[in-house]
## 1
Amino acid sequence: MSQAGQWTATVMARRDTGDYAVVTLSAGTDTSTARPGQFVSVKVAGPDSALLLRRAMWIGEATASGREGGTIEVVADLREPGGAWLAAQPQSARVDVIGPLGRPFSLPRDPTTCLLIGFETATAALVKLAEDLVSRGCRVRFLLLGQNVAYGALTARRFSSEIMDSSGRITSPRDATLSQLDDSVEVVYSAGTTEQLQPVGQILMGKGVAHQAAVETPLVCGSRTCTLCALPVRGRDGVTRMVRACTEGPVFQGDFVRWDDLGTVPGDCLGASEEIR
Amino acid sequence: MSQAGQWTATVMARRDTGDYAVVTLSAGTDTSTARPGQFVSVKVAGPDSALLLRRAMWIGEATASGREGGTIEVVADLREPGGAWLAAQPQSARVDVIGPLGRPFSLPRDPTTCLLIGFETATAALVKLAEDLVSRGCRVRFLLLGQNVAYGALTARRFSSEIMDSSGRITSPRDATLSQLDDSVEVVYSAGTTEQLQPVGQILMGKGVAHQAAVETPLVCGSRTCTLCALPVRGRDGVTRMVRACTEGPVFQGDFVRWDDLGTVPGDCLGASEEIR
Amino acid sequence: MTEDVVLAGQRFANRVFAAAGCAGTGRELPAQANLAGLGAVITRSITPEARAGLAAPRIAETPSGLINALGLPGPGIEGFLADELPWLVDHGAAVIVSIAAEQAADYARLAQRLRQVEGVIAVEINLSNPVTESGRLPAAMDAGLAGGIVHAVRRNTAAGTPVFAKLSGDTTDIVSVARACVGAGADGVSLINAVRGMGIDAATGKPALGAWTGGLSGPAIKPIALRAVWEVHAALPDLPIIASGGVRTGTDAAEMMMAGASAVSVGTALLSDPTAGIRVREELAGIAARREGGLQGLLGCAHQEVTA
Amino acid sequence: MTEDVVLAGQRFANRVFAAAGCAGTGRELPAQANLAGLGAVITRSITPEARAGLAAPRIAETPSGLINALGLPGPGIEGFLADELPWLVDHGAAVIVSIAAEQAADYARLAQRLRQVEGVIAVEINLSNPVTESGRLPAAMDAGLAGGIVHAVRRNTAAGTPVFAKLSGDTTDIVSVARACVGAGADGVSLINAVRGMGIDAATGKPALGAWTGGLSGPAIKPIALRAVWEVHAALPDLPIIASGGVRTGTDAAEMMMAGASAVSVGTALLSDPTAGIRVREELAGIAARREGGLQGLLGCAHQEVTA
Ligand SMILES: Cc1cc2nc3c(=O)[nH]c(=O)nc-3n(C[C@H](O)[C@H](O)[C@H](O)COP(=O)(O)OP(=O)(O)OC[C@H]3O[C@@H](n4cnc5c(N)ncnc54)[C@H](O)[C@@H]3O)c2cc1C
Ligand SMILES: Cc1cc2nc3c(=O)[nH]c(=O)nc-3n(C[C@H](O)[C@H](O)[C@H](O)COP(=O)(O)OP(=O)(O)OC[C@H]3O[C@@H](n4cnc5c(N)ncnc54)[C@H](O)[C@@H]3O)c2cc1C
Ligand SMILES: Cc1cc2nc3c(=O)[nH]c(=O)nc-3n(C[C@H](O)[C@H](O)[C@H](O)COP(=O)(O)O)c2cc1C
Ligand SMILES: Cc1cc2nc3c(=O)[nH]c(=O)nc-3n(C[C@H](O)[C@H](O)[C@H](O)COP(=O)(O)O)c2cc1C
Ligand code: FES
Ligand code: FES
């Protein structure tokens, strides 16, 4: 599973956590090579379905081998038609999966203190990350935001005693982020939808802390074909381009994302014309 | 279940016979009042399905009471998307059903010899009929046509020793029908699609044998709303009308159906204009 | 929250109607369908004379849709008035009569015949029927033809009875057709009729419908209906719109209202679920109750967000 | 059975193509997609200058369909020729270049630039882009505009390179637009582009797409595409038609051919399954092999049955 491919997964198990279900898929091969921040793209319905498109899912826990080769866990939102379909598949149902996809998080060369910020299901993207960071001697601190972070919280507790979750205590993602940013934090890792990450990205911009953001955007083909996942990102050359989250992301350096301009094509973007809002 | 209604059935069991599956549905109420020749209309998919329409299914065996009230059996064609969906439902799945629908077969007042001709899944429509006929002292003879008549054959063997099935021996439905028509036969009951019954209806026309035909036609609403099920039938007044199979049928007197003109609106039909093919 | 609404001077108990041809003439529906609980029942299109309809097959299923070519079967206006309308009225339905003919003069005669008939609260003009004036193009495809028919119907309809023109979503420019209808006296528009489509049966190599081509309806066309409602509401914001095209849930109905519809009608969904109309009405009321501004607040709100 | 076919003088290895914009420029696809195994790859529409595209969201799912409003993002013709085309050619793809612009003169310039470029076996004119001449109506909606652009492109394209005009299924009269294109020199037509549609997000009360309206594609529109193919083939039986609109299986492809298409292109299906093109090709060949007359025998056969 180290290279992206299309494979048939088998549903091994499902357990529910709030509005989400954790679904274990067996891959038939070694899945431990999937890197933190990568995702799979799941065909969420059969031939008679009115749902045409695949759904992206963060890779949570991944094991090297189980009863049927390696397994991965994904966290499916039961309130969405795609997630509900996946969760409803009985044990040993077969599911068409493409992955692992996308550029993963990069890890710091030297041990340091990292703040991991996760929203809702996207906390799943932090699970392998925390494991890898801790195994490199990093200290990890967690900020878990949203109603349904139980899956991420489980990992958090394994790797960190510094966990803040949002059960009622937090006024805004912005304030919560600020409250966790003391001098020891050198790297922030975040994961969530573009809307969720916007205030986090904005507050961190120019703060001198490295920020890597794993973004959920509308994502259709997962293979650089459709350009439907594009968001405005500044390049090292200073030029803003509409960049595909599925292949150049989903992990971006936070300081390069045009957080204020998400959902638009900024006027100074390469190829933008004035007519575009 | 004696009056048409909309109810939620529970899938009790499935057993396969060739390209068909026999599905047992529990109705929660007494189902023994369903009459031979009636059918149910089954919603064959969930909210995310691309299949919008209900599927009609003949009522096969119907029991007065089982573990969860009465049950009915339907025979679902696995090669069709609707039948395949129904058959794929796991035990205790819930299915939306409307029925029993349609005008049933009428039974002869006096004991007589009856020929029952069934095609494919439509043989299911003959199951309760045979039982009722035999209990009234009639003699029943079976002609089972098609690849998959196992369900009907089971019943046939219970009620008759005169069974002819089509496994390779029969040249045409027309010849087969003729071969079974000796002087003792006073009533013919047939069940099948309009295409299947056409040669049977044509050959019996004017032969002086009573013929009741239960026809499968495209059938959408099942409730006289959409007129999509209409076929040309001559009335007692001699006037041909486009008549709705779902409510004025599915059982018709064979001599009144315009067998030669199926699929058309005959020029002498009430309301036909010359422009209509 | 009140569910009732006044459209073009006529009061309706609520905003969810049965679309033309999809509740039949009503009598066929099981009791659960509860016609009296709908804002209105739009009849199938009534023609001058009785019609047998087109050859079979009249229908085929398509992905999330349905194509049909019925050919407007029915008893004709006299049969309808004698038999079907009284039954609908007796059962408490608020009846909008849909009319269809092959030339403007016949539309006018139908309207004339409906004048003063007890229980007809509005007239809907089905403009998707081919008309002889055009070489058999549906009038809804041509602003001039459509306007001419609307004019003829409006002139022959009682002043207090609103006239709705039912348009097509697959015309090049629906706004210009809508403008022509309003100019000719239409009090509102119904958007959209089934979209021209076709099926081929690959097994036989023949067209799936006896009439070859037919109308595509159901959830498949909802995006087309939303676009039509959006465009017409943007151009003519005060015009009452009755939206149809794939409405199956209260959410679908809310989307139509947000795009600019004053009322919605449920068509294809009624064929597989006779209670769909009542369910949509309840779900829509629930959605409106959870937002500020109630049902009226939904109307066209997607435009406000965009222009703000 | 041979799968190859000559359309407008150009030989294609088989009749199943990748539709414009749905195989990207090719390089993005996993190896399984096997571009060289398709009859042709139609590129996304190439514009005179680089374009960033429209604001997000650019897509929404609909029942059995997809609405998108991308705004033709891409590197522009020079970037395409420098970078993307060579890659496609290297990987064995037979490339049809789709072009789009806002006025006839720019279409002409694009055609001129493609002249003599190695590896371009045909040009497809995307006429669904709004053009400035019309007050921003897509040219495909107007026979005159469409003909003007086709004429400009044909004049500037090498004689041996066929030009296909890509039309819309939601225009009032597609046959008259097709006739105008043929009159202006089109060697064939591609039917149909995505249908104008819209989504509303009921949760937010806003349009689902950043650009408000967009193109509806996928199985939902297959009946509309079949109708368009049927009508154009009936009117212009010798005109090569490349059909697209909801093709997902070999059966869908066979239906398109029966209605009158010479080739089919697979669009939306490629987005969720990059191997869909090859699978459709194999399934179509299988269907043809089980019938007399092979693939060519499928072409327009539904008309023969009807007129016989
Ligand atoms: C990299 C990535 C990882 C993700 N991981 C998870 C996960 O672990 N668990 C989970 O429940 N969900 C995850 N999502 C979101 C998930 O893919 C679905 O989009 C989401 O669950 C909504 O599902 P839906 O059935 O309502 O589809 P819709 O939101 O209606 O989407 C239908 C289609 O459009 C695309 N799309 C449209 N809008 C969006 C949007 N705003 N965001 C994403 N896709 C959109 C979808 O990918 C899909 O192909 C992830 C998304 C991305 C991009
Ligand atoms: C009275 C009656 C009893 C039936 N009993 C059985 C049964 O016991 N077992 C069984 O497997 N099938 C039965 N059928 C046929 C069944 O309802 C389905 O139409 C058939 O299985 C084909 O299924 P499909 O999923 O391919 O649907 P399609 O044939 O694609 O049909 C989709 C929709 O269109 C309607 N339709 C279109 N064409 C036809 C047609 N030629 N005949 C019927 N409906 C059409 C269907 O009712 C359905 O609503 C019966 C039909 C009728 C009318
Ligand atoms: C079976 C059937 C019959 C119809 N009959 C009529 C009709 O008589 N007159 C009319 O104007 N529209 C008729 N329509 C169109 C519907 O009223 C409706 O406008 C269209 O189907 C789109 O809505 P829907 O997707 O909810 O069905 C009919 C549609 C169907 C499916
Ligand atoms: C994501 C996407 C991008 C598309 N880009 C183009 C394009 O650049 N040029 C064009 O002519 N058509 C474009 N189309 C239309 C397709 O080529 C095709 O004609 C249409 O989607 C109908 O086919 P389908 O239902 O198989 O997708 C695009 C469609 C989609 C879904
Ligand atoms: S999801 Fe298609 S290009 Fe990124
Ligand atoms: S199936 Fe609708 S009227 Fe008979």
## 2
Amino acid sequence: MSPAANMAVFVGGVRLANPVLAASGTFGYGREYSPYLEPGAIGGLVTKGVSLEPRVGNPPPRIVETACGMLNAIGLANVGLEEFLAHKLPWLSEQPGAVVVNLYGESVAEFAELARRLGAEPGVDALELNVSCPNVKEGGMAFGCHPGAVGEVTAAAVAEAQGKPVWVKLTPNVTDLAPMALAAAQAGAQAVSLINTLLAMAIDPKTRRPKLANVVGGLSGPAIKPVGLRMVWQVAGALKAEHPGVDVVGLGGIMSGTDAAEYLIAGAKAVQVGTASFTDPTAAGRIAAELAAYCAGQEVSAAELAGSLRI
Amino acid sequence: MSPAANMAVFVGGVRLANPVLAASGTFGYGREYSPYLEPGAIGGLVTKGVSLEPRVGNPPPRIVETACGMLNAIGLANVGLEEFLAHKLPWLSEQPGAVVVNLYGESVAEFAELARRLGAEPGVDALELNVSCPNVKEGGMAFGCHPGAVGEVTAAAVAEAQGKPVWVKLTPNVTDLAPMALAAAQAGAQAVSLINTLLAMAIDPKTRRPKLANVVGGLSGPAIKPVGLRMVWQVAGALKAEHPGVDVVGLGGIMSGTDAAEYLIAGAKAVQVGTASFTDPTAAGRIAAELAAYCAGQEVSAAELAGSLRI
Amino acid sequence: MSISLKAKVMSNQPVGPEIFLLTLEAPAIADAARPGQFVMLRVSPGPDPLLARPFSIHGVEGGKLLILYQVKGKGTKLLAQARPGSELLVWGPLGRGFDLAAERPALVAGGMGIAPLAFAAERLEERGAAFDAFYGLASKEAFIAWDSVSGDGAFFLEDWGWNGASEDGSVGLHGLVTEPLRTRLEQDGERPGAVLACGPLPMLKAVALLCAEFEVACQTSLEAPMACGVGACLGCAIPSVGGGYLRACQEGPVMDASLVDWKKI
Amino acid sequence: MSISLKAKVMSNQPVGPEIFLLTLEAPAIADAARPGQFVMLRVSPGPDPLLARPFSIHGVEGGKLLILYQVKGKGTKLLAQARPGSELLVWGPLGRGFDLAAERPALVAGGMGIAPLAFAAERLEERGAAFDAFYGLASKEAFIAWDSVSGDGAFFLEDWGWNGASEDGSVGLHGLVTEPLRTRLEQDGERPGAVLACGPLPMLKAVALLCAEFEVACQTSLEAPMACGVGACLGCAIPSVGGGYLRACQEGPVMDASLVDWKKI
Ligand SMILES: Cc1cc2nc3c(=O)[nH]c(=O)nc-3n(C[C@H](O)[C@H](O)[C@H](O)COP(=O)(O)OP(=O)(O)OC[C@H]3O[C@@H](n4cnc5c(N)ncnc54)[C@H](O)[C@@H]3O)c2cc1C
Ligand SMILES: Cc1cc2nc3c(=O)[nH]c(=O)nc-3n(C[C@H](O)[C@H](O)[C@H](O)COP(=O)(O)OP(=O)(O)OC[C@H]3O[C@@H](n4cnc5c(N)ncnc54)[C@H](O)[C@@H]3O)c2cc1C
Ligand SMILES: Cc1cc2nc3c(=O)[nH]c(=O)nc-3n(C[C@H](O)[C@H](O)[C@H](O)COP(=O)(O)O)c2cc1C
Ligand SMILES: Cc1cc2nc3c(=O)[nH]c(=O)nc-3n(C[C@H](O)[C@H](O)[C@H](O)COP(=O)(O)O)c2cc1C
Ligand code: FES
Ligand code: FES
């Protein structure tokens, strides 16, 4: 057996014991999965998107399975900021591993307010701005499709975050992601996370109705991995040229340690595991272990693996 | 058993015995699949993209399998216009079913020239402009990402096509497809075909190299069906409002008759079967038969099924 | 405490038309299981079908977990092919089960709703608690286990006294299962302390209405499409009376009928 | 004429380390098959893995089609689980096979390259044609069929005279299969009319070089990732000497070595 690889990474202003995070919206507030993971198995987690007020979300059906994937239209249901601070963050803060809070506002002011409140919390390691949710009418993806809007939201959050690192979660539903990433970087983001889900749809041929009450939803899972990899590669290249200090956090369809390795090779500094957790509640921990084994076999550290694609 | 449904459709200026076409690039010039389909089993076919000069295409590897999908980076290899006219079209013209010629130029002038030459051929029922190929440097997708360029190419082809219907094949790799479809319609296209492949990538974790020589390629197959359905639904809605005479031809991941039905329900007037033919050379014919059985069971004609989504 | 493990298939037998009984070696889950709880089961290790399927715990035998399932779509079709000796990923026990503390509860099962309620009956039986049990089916043919049932439909799965009702009268009473339940509720003096129900949505609605009418507490086991099963994805939303939603996998699957907004479901 | 059908699996037996012999009932394909041609085989009906896999035709027996395959990745792993009685979608015969008309050809197989060449040997044998046969392996362990082979490696799969060579010397000559081939080519007067080769790319390159040196016609069977197998997708590009590409499934898989740009492959 090869000697253990150094898996620690410094990404988007945060030190992680290993580059595997659980993705927003797929890991609850962490506690839901605590029976299934050894403490410290993963580098950290990104919370379900938190908004100022609680949100009940979309009517059901909210999820549907597709070929090698699933659609969701949860509608950013969440407990709201106060409940998050009172009952979710305290437990999270006691866990090993980084806590990245995904947050969602309907306006620049709401993003700024969330950043101000969450930036003040010692238990929070970084903020991830969700400017890319395809399942809500206001805000969400609208912000993520224009470099100007991405820059504005990011700048407002960075200004209020009291030095806490700000990451920006980008939508893949655009012609060219690089300008969004560059706008976020320009405005002070320390990392961009990509990809969020692909806007998609499913129809029941028996009833001729949409399978989701929201009609459209977001596609995630192994089906989208090739798209995520391509975008990470493109964005990592663009950032390297213009903002070399700004990192890419890669996600989309990661199911195994080699999937995670591919994202790192493409240029991500860390990865997030989303839908995989639904298919196996131990997935995030297993993937971190598999990635460590892969790195040991390749005799590289996680940091060396990042961006090591040979063309 | 329910009585047979009327499967004939009039789509994009072409009468089809049934709404199932074979998709460009996945059915060669038709003859490759003739051992596997009864004559007249499908409504017609769309040829591999034809360019003025022959093209050898990209170096191998050109294809790679992904979760419920595949990537291709063929690079629009084709025999070129002269060879097509001399040796491919004559056989095709003798077959039952419509012949739609997919064509690809590196400039507006090339598209126009191709439209002029092919428009003059009695054996050609319609032209499909490929403004969406992700695997070539010049032209291709570049044209498909800007409504102005889509309109310009379309107008030039329509002007030269001598009344032959012009369809425009759109790329899904854009923030919003509706403006492209509207631009095509405005410029005289009689149908838009969507979707082409999603720009994507695969990496070999063992070698840390891209799996495709071209680095990036196009994702097709069941993995992308939810994205295709969403786009067809959105574009059909936009066209209905502004250009009700212009049709949508839907494709992306159709593997079965019910998949085809879902595209029709979403708003397509006809469908194309692509990657499915690789997984079963009889797929296009089988899908047409399954769709007919579905329509009979639902007691609707194919034309009535189109756009019948109930929300 | 819920756990996740690769469970060995001990047996996977047809017990009715498109109905199978699956026995898994999963001691840690079996030991913790309570009636009404469920497990998430991956029917195949590959990426398609992607998601695990939720199944009620039908019973436990030693360290073995019993699952009674009906073939519905591609997941259960694949599951029906699982061979003894193979392994399936399973996690649980999950969710809130039935509260078995009520005085002389009435168990009302419709179709596959028998799966968790047979387990509830077993536990009640074990502790010597009195209860009534009602089991509604479309037809005798719908459940092969009825073949071993006495003429009046009094026996099922061991010896608990299930009162049967079938829509075509082929077994037990002729009619819906809510009819013997109504008769039972109308009996004076000895109202059930609670009604525990699992079955198709129309049946659950009817049972909830009936219980409201007779002011009897009603626990309903609800289904929703699920992705995670552990409360994280928020996919399994059940409309609640206060507005908003409850998670079938966390606040349920067994929910007090008075919490559910039956009109929106 | 190629056809597509659902073929019943007659047997699917291990015959070596991770090597299986699959027998399919596919009379229409078997009747038309020529050595060097291949079939496309779907290893599972679902969408993942999506694409069919190409396999050389290893032989035909009555209406049965023999395929000799090695487990490589997920497709062949699944294939190894196919049970007799199940059905697999298969189409063929496809592509250009070997030209067996040459005077006393030399057959050169490396590893799994034996699959089509054993079929070629059978056909040559049937028509009473003289030929030489060379079979290179990494080691005796690489192919269990060698267990039934005489000490000098002279027998393989029935009674054709294969001259073996192994990289570790555990069977036949010690060395690469190109060494006995060179010896054969150096023999004066009785040059092979053609060399027919199938095996790993480095072997094919060496064989092509050797044939060029001795000015002997060389037919090589090439591999490329394939999607359609019928000439439509243009995925299986093999660089050709004139620039441009040949389709492995259509202009190949057996190609005259002089047409292939070996430097670009
Ligand atoms: C808490 C809970 C406990 C359950 N317990 C059992 C049990 O003990 N025995 C049993 O046979 N079944 C049970 N089910 C239902 C079971 O999960 C579904 O039948 C199964 O997921 C169908 O999978 P499939 O792949 O075969 O069908 P799919 O191909 O996924 O779908 C086939 C059909 O079933 C419907 N369906 C799919 N999933 C669900 C679901 N979760 N709820 C309702 N309808 C669904 C689909 O809409 C579709 O019409 C339970 C469901 C839940 C939520
Ligand atoms: C014309 C032709 C005839 C063939 N005949 C035989 C045969 O008789 N017996 C046999 O065992 N194999 C044969 N092969 C190779 C066989 O097709 C592959 O081994 C098989 O497709 C691997 O599938 P998999 O899903 O197990 O592997 P995958 O998971 O798809 O891949 C596993 C590994 O095999 C490599 N690989 C995959 N497909 C091919 C391919 N087409 N060519 C080369 N490498 C590949 C991949 O790059 C990867 O490294 C033939 C290939 C061709 C093109
Ligand atoms: C059920 C569900 C809920 C999600 N909720 C959020 C969210 O609140 N905020 C966010 O930024 N992304 C959210 N996502 C997107 C995921 O974090 C991730 O970007 C996406 O699913 C792709 O990764 P995957 O293929 O690994 O799942 C959600 C995804 C799913 C499936
Ligand atoms: C190998 C291959 C080659 C293709 N070549 C072309 C082409 O020349 N012109 C074109 O418009 N589309 C081409 N396409 C795109 C398909 O026509 C289709 O739009 C896409 O594959 C999505 O449909 P599917 O999922 O059914 O395959 C090609 C697709 C594949 C897989
Ligand atoms: S199934 Fe995920 S929250 Fe209930
Ligand atoms: S495999 Fe499709 S052209 Fe050869």
